[in-house]
Each structure stands twice: as structure tokens, then as C-alpha cells.
From TrEMBL, chain A:
CC annotations in GO: plasma membrane
PROSITE patterns assigned to the protein according to its UniProt record, in alphabetical order: ABC_TRANSPORTER_1, ABC_TRANSPORTER_2
Gene3D superfamilies with a match to the protein in the record: P-loop containing nucleotide triphosphate hydrolases
CDD domains reported for this sequence: ABC_Mj1267_LivG_branched
Keyword ATP-binding: yes
Name of the protein: ABC transporter domain-containing protein
UniProtKB/TrEMBL annotation, chain B:
GO cellular component: plasma membrane
Membrane topology: Multi-pass membrane protein
Listed name of the protein: Branched-chain amino acid ABC transporter permease
The organism of origin for this protein: Promicromonospora citrea
Regions that span the bilayer: 36-58, 65-85, 160-180, 213-233, 245-276, 296-313
One Pfam family recorded for the sequence: BPD_transp_2
Subcellular locations according to the entry: Cell membrane
Length: 331, 328
């Protein structure tokens, strides 16, 4: 199971670099009205760590999480712009997942406060947060194996009177809701290429399909903000393209997206704003193109002082990477 | 030939025996816990003992039958709340440890002389002290009735009335379980069984669902305790770890997370168990004393449980496909 973790990522990129080159990705970018508006708004924001956004949906201040002596997360201030796609990047172990866990109530911080839609949520339970519109997916996929794909979807739908013990006894109370939810679920499954699998057990899906199911399932909750932990990991390149399209469509529907991703090309092509973490801290933020040239970011990823842009295709070449690593070791 | 048919009839009688109904109901409760929700309760005997004491003591104190019935159910619900509040937020193993120790604590408390005025201490409560109101409820005329090879008194302890009542309770429980497990509520339980964090991430109050399942299954357990003592007496040492272990065998034999699994499991288990014991007693009479036969039969139950878990983990009614993939 853990094979679908990040360790797989570089291998995937190196084996099929052609399909993810800039042109194919550029072709998938929907040049929507919303996209232009968001870009315009964020263009006015100064690209520096902790900067205030014009319309933040999420604001975190002074968030710290320590494991023993090690500080996994130490975020002074972060604001996430409403209706934008924000990417959270950083090397392995940077604290991205831990930060996600803290924000979504799956872990307790040593200190810190944060608010969602203007409400303090630092001590709110994960379930309550999800109900208030902040839904997440997990890096290690959590498919509900012995439920079918469709049941996975239906389970996620909010406000079902049949989920109350007494309501459950009377089918007429919930059969209508179930029917509407089923239609909605099938429509979303269609978008994620899972419609044929609807009656299969989720446990029988492949790793990539589970990723897709988890994302589709999250959408069933009608979130205001969706937080995806490596949604593209283990998904084949052709599907990555359509996935990127879906994510942009979500933004165009008014949803806020915050996602963790190691695939720099995906990040560069769909995100409106990029936040970079390294060793628990946020080391840079800004629009994708400028952030990837930021020296602090390149340092965080590749070791100090390379004048390489992270989005550079040459980094997909194992030979180039090996050379960079060798140089780093010599220092 | 006569011997053989006597053995067969005795085994057949187990299919509808009140004790079989009690095990079926206890397994229905355990199935709600483990089969549907994934809660590891290894102290179902504790719930049964609570229900038995609740019923018997309430009756002895003068409560009418249905009030005592409610007290019995309430005793199971109370125990479930007590055990669930501290443990259901923790990892699953904690509930397992707490339930098994609670079952033992209840049994020891029952045996102790401290409350012997109520519980009767180690010797328990004689059936005659609490059976009156139940038997008075019987609508059947006095006498005996024979159906096929089975013949019992209409009224009394080991009677048709006790059987009708016990299996009616089981029937109602099956019906309720069917209604709630086919519903969206049941779907949430199954989701929790698969991965509670995923369900939490979708906005469900996992603790509340687990608590509801624990209470419902606990009430089924305590009412099973009531059924268990209706034809006999309340004896704490009859309701210990072996009882829990048999209930688990019954549930796994029938098939976890199946509707009729617990009922089928209980019937089959006691049919075979009786066949084994009486058969061996007759067949091995020259070789070993009757007491050893009991031990040997108990040992065989253990081996059977292991065989089920290893070779047919889905039980008789379970869906093989559901277990075909690694859950984690
Ligand atoms: N439960 C835990 N106990 C101890 N240390 C932990 C725990 N969870 C995370 N850490 C540590 O915190 C650091 C940050 O981990 P985290 O999972 O947040 O990294 P990440 O940025 O998501 O990395 P990746 O890109 O590999 O997923 C790591 O050094 C990790 O070892
Ligand atoms: Mg991570």
C-alpha cells in the first residue's frame, strides 16, 4: 500500500516524460474568465512569505507542531485566497502533510490559531470542519474497501436523513434523497472515469483509481474548499491532464483548492499561487513562474546555489539530476 | 437404532432451544459491533450477565415482566455507555481490553458476597425466584404439545412458551438489524469499519455512530442474557469467557456482517455441538468418562473456530469476494 507514496513519483516522471511536457499541459489549461480574474487579483499581491491576500478563506497564524525535539511545522502566517488554486510544495518531510492534518483537525498543534471563513477553527473536530465546507483527501489513499464505489460516494453526501438512527428505520424518509445523491454521484464518477466501476468494491480498484475515487468522494460533500494531498501521485499522465482540467473546473465553479504536489509541471500549469515549505517553515510564496525561479526554493529542493528553474524540463533527465546531486555532495 | 434416533432428536431440539435463541441474539449484537462497525467486543458475556441480573433482580424486587425487560435492556445500554465513553475515541484495541476485563469484573462482582442479598453471590439466583411473571404471561393452555419429533410442556421453564418468546425476540432483532443496516446509517457504520478517518474527513461524527452501534449491540447482548436465564437460573460462572468465546464462534460461523449469519450460526453450532457430545458420550462410553467428553467437545469447538477463521473467514453466509482483498 505504501508503494503509492511519493517514492514512486520520480520514477513515473522519468519513465514517461514526453506526455507531461509543457505543450500538452498548456493545451489543457482552460483560459476561463475566473482564471483571468484570479490571476489579476493575485498579481497585485506582493510575493513574500506571510503576505495578506485580498479575500482569504483560510488564515493560519503561529502554527507549530513538534514531534519530540523535531519541529515538523512552524508556520508564522499563511493566507489562502478564496476561489484560487493554491499549491503547497516542498521536499519530502517538509511538513506539508502534517500542516494539512493540523488545518483539518486530524492532528493537534502545540500552538497556533487559524480561521476558516472568518471563524476560529483551531479546536474544531475534523468532522465538524468537513461539514462546514473544508474537505480533504489523504496522501495515503483511504478508499473504503468493502463498500462499492457508489456506496463510497453516497456515504459522502451531507444531510442524509437516513443517516440518523431513527430516520434509518423509515425508508420513505430517505429514498428520495438517496436517488438524487445517486444521480449526482454518477455524474461525478463519469467525470473521473469511474462510472463503469460503480458496483465494484473500492478495494478492487487500482492505486490510481483509488486516488480518483477519493477526490470524487470529497466532491460529494459540496465543499467550499478542497484540500488535496498529492492528488496526482500514481495517476497516469493522460489522466493527470484531465484531472488538472477538473481541478480548474472546480475553481471556476467558485471552489477554493489547496493541493500538495511534487509534480512541478502540474503545479506550474494550474496553480494561481504557490506556497513553498521546507523543514516546517514557509520559505517562499508567490505566482508559480516567479516562485520556481526563487533562489530559496531552488535551494530547498536541490541544495544551495543552482541557477535552475524547478519547472525546467531538463530536471526530468536523470543524467542532469545525477550531475546536480553529485555537485551537491562535493560541497 | 433407538440410541441413534435419541441422539438425533436431542440434536434437533437444539435448533429451537431457548439457549440457541439466546446465543443467536448475543451474536446479532456482536455482529453489529464487529461485523458492521468493526468494534472489537470480547466481553459480550458481560453484557449478557448485566442483562440477566437486571431482569432477575428487577423481577425479584417486584417489577412486572415488561418493566424488568426494559431494565435488562437498560443495563446493557448503561454498560455500553460506560465502556464506550473512555475507549471509543482511542484505537480499537482498547475497547477489546476494556470489554474483556469489564466482563470479568461484572462476573466477580456478581460472585462476591458484597451484594449477595441481590445477586445471590456465587450460587446466583434460582430460576424460581424470577420466572413467575414471565410464565404467567403465557397464553398457552397447560399440557404438552408434540411437533414432529419434538415434545415439550406448553408452559414452564423449558417449554414451548419460552421457545416462542425467545425466538420472537430474535425475529424482532433480525428485522430491526435488517432495517438499520440497509439504510444510510448502516452504510456509515460499514464505512467506519473500513477506515474511520476517511469517514471523519467526510463530516460524520464517528464517535456518535460507534457509540450507537455499541449501545444497540450491547442491548441485544443484555436481552440475550435475559433469554439465556429464562429456562435456567442466573449463575455468574455460567456466563464467563467461554460464553463470549462461543458467541464469537457462532457469529463467525454464520458469517460476520450478514443478516441471518448469527441465527444460522447459532442453530448449526448447537446442533453439531450436541450431536458431538451425545454421540461421543454414547460411542466412547467405554473409553473415557463423560466429563472428559465435555472437555474434548470444548476442545473441538476451539479447533473449529480456528478452522473457520483460516479456511472460511467469511463464514457460511459471507461473501467471499468481500474478503478477497487486503483491507489495509
Ligand atoms: N506522527 C509522527 N511522529 C513523528 N514524526 C512525524 C510524524 N508525522 C510526521 N513526522 C515527521 O514530520 C516531518 C514532516 O512530515 P510530513 O509527512 O508532514 O512531510 P511531507 O511534507 O508531507 O512529506 P512528503 O512530501 O514526503 O509527503 C517528517 O520529518 C516526519 O518524519
Ligand atoms: Mg506528505
Amino acid at each position: 500500500m505504501s508503494a503509492e507514496n511519493t517514492t514512486e513519483k520520480p520514477a513515473e516522471n522519468t519513465t514517461e516524460p514526453v506526455e507531461l511536457d509543457d505543450e500538452t499541459l498548456a493545451a489543457t489549461v482552460v483560459d476561463s474568465e475566473t482564471a483571468r480574474q484570479v490571476t489579476e487579483t493575485l498579481a497585485g499581491v506582493e510575493p513574500k512569505v506571510g503576505v495578506a491576500k485580498p479575500d482569504p478563506i483560510l488564515r493560519a497564524t503561529g502554527v507549530q507542531r513538534r514531534f519530540g525535539g523535531m519541529t515538523a511545522v512552524d508556520v508564522d502566517h499563511l493566507e489562502v485566497q478564496r476561489g484560487a488554486i493554491t499549491a503547497l510544495i516542498g521536499p519530502n518531510g517538509a511538513g506539508k502533510t502534517t500542516f494539512f492534518n493540523l488545518l483539518t483537525g486530524f492532528d493537534k498543534p502545540n500552538q497556533g490559531t487559524w480561521e476558516f471563513e472568518g471563524k476560529q477553527i483551531a479546536r474544531t473536530s475534523a468532522a465538524k470542519l468537513a461539514r462546514s465546507g473544508m474537505v480533504r483527501t489523504f496522501q495515503l489513499t483511504k478508499a473504503l474497501s468493502r463498500l462499492t464505489v457508489l456506496q463510497n460516494m453516497l456515504l459522502a453526501a451531507p444531510d442524509n436523513p437516513g443517516e440518523n438512527l431513527f430516520g434509518a428505520l423509515f425508508r420513505p424518509l430517505w429514498s428520495g434523497v438517496e436517488k438524487r445523491n445517486t444521480e449526482k454521484a454518477l455524474e461525478i464518477l463519469e467525470r473521473f472515469n469511474l462510472a463503469q466501476k460503480k458496483d465494484d468494491f473500492a478495494g478492487s480498484l487500482s492505486g490510481g483509481q483509488r486516488k480518483l475515487l477519493e477526490m470524487a468522494r470529497a466532491l460529494m460533500t459540496d465543499p467550499a474548499m478542497i484540500m488535496l494531498d498529492e492528488p496526482m501521485a500514481g495517476v497516469n499522465p493522460a489522466l493527470v491532464q484531465s484531472l488538472l482540467g477538473h481541478i480548474q473546473a472546480l475553481r471556476d465553479d467558485g471552489m477554493t483548492v489547496l493541493f500538495v504536489e511534487h509534480d512541478m509541471h502540474a503545479v506550474r500549469h494550474i496553480s494561481d499561487w504557490v506556497v513553498v515549505m521546507a523543514e516546517g517553515r514557509i520559505v517562499a510564496e508567490g505566482p508559480p513562474t516567479s516562485v520556481m525561479q526563487d533562489q530559496a526554493v531552488v535551494d530547498a529542493y536541490l541544495g544551495a546555489h543552482h541557477d535552475t528553474d524547478l519547472g525546467d524540463d531538463s530536471l526530468l533527465d536523470p543524467a542532469v539530476l545525477a550531475r546536480l546531486e553529485a555537485e551537491e555532495e562535493k560541497r | 437404532m433407538d440410541e441413534l434416533s435419541r441422539i438425533l432428536i436431542q440434536a434437533l431440539g437444539q435448533l429451537i432451544a431457548p439457549a440457541t435463541a439466546a446465543y443467536a441474539l448475543a451474536a446479532i449484537g456482536l455482529n453489529l459491533h464487529f461485523g458492521y462497525t468493526g468494534l472489537l467486543n470480547i466481553g459480550q458475556a458481560g453484557f449478557m450477565l448485566m442483562g440477566a441480573y437486571g431482569f432477575a433482580i428487577a423481577t425479584i424486587e417486584g417489577a412486572p415482566f415488561w418493566l424488568a425487560f426494559l431494565v435488562s435492556a437498560g443495563a446493557g445500554a448503561l454498560l455500553a455507555l460506560l465502556l464506550g465513553i473512555p475507549t471509543l475515541k482511542l484505537r480499537g484495541d482498547y475497547l477489546a481490553i476494556v470489554t474483556i476485563s469489564a466482563a470479568e469484573i461484572i462476573r466477580f462482582a456478581g460472585r462476591s458476597t458484597l451484594w449477595a442479598d441481590y445477586t445471590g453471590g456465587a450460587s446466583g439466583l434460582a430460576g424460581s425466584t424470577y420466572k413467575g411473571p414471565f410464565q404467567a404471561l403465557s397464553p398457552l393452555p397447560d399440557g404438552r404439545t408434540t411437533i414432529g419429533p419434538l415434545e415439550y410442556l406448553n408452559n414452564g421453564s423449558d417449554s414451548w412458551w419460552t421457545r416462542i418468546f425467545a425466538w420472537s425476540v430474535v425475529l424482532v432483532a433480525v428485522l430491526l438489524v435488517w432495517l438499520i443496516t440497509r439504510s444510510p446509517w448502516g452504510r456509515v457504520l460499514k464505512g467506519i469499519r473500513e477506515d474511520e478517518d476517511a469517514v471523519r474527513a467526510l463530516g460524520k461524527n464517528v464517535f456518535a455512530y460507534k457509540m450507537q452501534a455499541l449501545v444497540l449491540g450491547g442491548v441485544a447482548g443484555s436481552l440475550a442474557g435475559l433469554l439465556f436465564v429464562l429456562p435456567i437460573s442466573v449463575a455468574p460462572d455460567n456466563m464467563g469467557r467461554t460464553l463470549t468465546f462461543f458467541v464469537w464462534t457462532v457469529m463467525l460461523l454464520g458469517g460476520a456482517a450478514t443478516l441471518f449469519g448469527p441465527v444460522l450460526g447459532a442453530m448449526l453450532f448447537f446442533f453439531v455441538y450436541m450431536l458431538l457430545r451425545t454421540g461421543m458420550r454414547a460411542g466412547l462410553a467405554d473409553v473415557m468418562p463423560a466429563q472428559n467428553v465435555e472437555h474434548l467437545a470444548g476442545l473441538m469447538v476451539g479447533v473449529a473456530l480456528m478452522c473457520i477463521v483460516i479456511f472460511r473467514p467469511q463464514g457460511i453466509l459471507g461473501n467471499k469476494k468481500e474478503l478477497a482483498f487486503d483491507v489495509r
